[in-house]
Amino acid sequence: MIPLFKVSMSDAAPAEVEKVLLSGFVGQGPKVDEFERALAARIGNPRLATVNSATSGLHLALHLVTGGPGGPGGEVLTTPMTCSATNWPILANGLKIKWVDVDPGTMNVDLDDLARKISPATKAIVLVHWSGYPVDLARLRAVLDQAEQAFGFRPVVIEDCAHSWGATFQGEPLGNHGNIAVFSFQAIKHLTCGDGGLMVLPDEELRRRARLLRWYGIERETNARFMFKNDIPEYGFKFHMNDINASIGLANLDLADANLRRHRENAAHFDAHLADVPGLELTERSADREPSFWIYTVKVDDRDGFMRKMDEAGVMVSQVHERNDVYSGVREFATLLPGLDSVSERMVSIPVGWWLTEDDRDHIVSTIRSGW
């Protein structure tokens, strides 16, 4: 079976982890600092904070900009077409979800629908770069400009970049477009730490608070940190990364660069060979962005038949995520989403990862082209 996902781990990772285990210090320490410096260099933005998962990063980001459960409440505009890890932090922060429709061409948020739904109750906007294909961030800026003129405030945007390590918009890596960006280093992502995440912040004050609140709100950068003599003016969380995970991430950085190139090569191959298949539609490609292609999503007629055909051919495929608005826990937020309705039963992802051989790619293409 050709897998849909696979863990990428450097041969050097076990030895690097062993060094940390034998050092006598396995918590947040010098390896985390080293990893953050390396990440800042990759992204081109020094205002960042590692965390123990992207979910923690999203939770903390929402807490920073809305005040959390003790804050004034309000709505967060978000997409239902994502992992539930995107949206459950909204509820955990005492906020209400307001679903925004999906653009059938990209699986990303429909920016026209987003513009219509911004209101004085909007406390933040959460968007996902589906499969690592960036949202049109220039158009988003125009939407925010219009909202600021209409309502006198500019909603904070949190980009869920869990699929998007290495993706760029208008030549700049995600994390450089004036929003909070949260990346995932979970087991099967382009860059893995075993588990972990990264927050990239648009200003120094948010960076300061993120680094403070990821560790209970305790100031760790003074000699008094282990004596607990510093005041804690704002409570925080235990969301920090540790040196074990950071050492894995450091070992995998160069490997992730090579893997990203391979994902893009495989995606280009599928773009070229699947564009004219009856009953199958590719997603959008735009010259102003370079996707990461963590997954490769297509829209097919008779998805059940397509999935059976691929399974019989030894190719693992999946819809990857269920639309979140179907879950009973968020039933109260239900609304009409015609764009998502038009594609949710057609979406399926095929293997695109670094592990594919040329024979694997040819087998996937020939199986699809033979019909289902």
From TrEMBL:
InterPro entries: DegT/StrS_aminotransferase, PyrdxlP-dep_Trfase, PyrdxlP-dep_Trfase_major, PyrdxlP-dep_Trfase_small. It comes from the Bacteria. Keywords: Aminotransferase, Pyridoxal phosphate, Transferase. GO terms for biological process: polysaccharide biosynthetic process. The modification N6-(pyridoxal phosphate)lysine is found at K189. The keyword Transferase applies. Signal peptide: none annotated. The active site is at K189. It holds the Pfam family DegT_DnrJ_EryC1. GO terms for molecular function: pyridoxal phosphate binding; transaminase activity. The keyword Transferase applies. Its cofactor is pyridoxal 5'-phosphate. PANTHER family: DTDP-4-AMINO-4,6-DIDEOXYGALACTOSE TRANSAMINASE, TRANSAMINASE. Belongs to the DegT/DnrJ/EryC1 family. This is DegT/DnrJ/EryC1/StrS family aminotransferase. It comes from Saccharothrix syringae. The lineage of its organism: Bacteria, Bacillati, Actinomycetota, Actinomycetes, Pseudonocardiales.
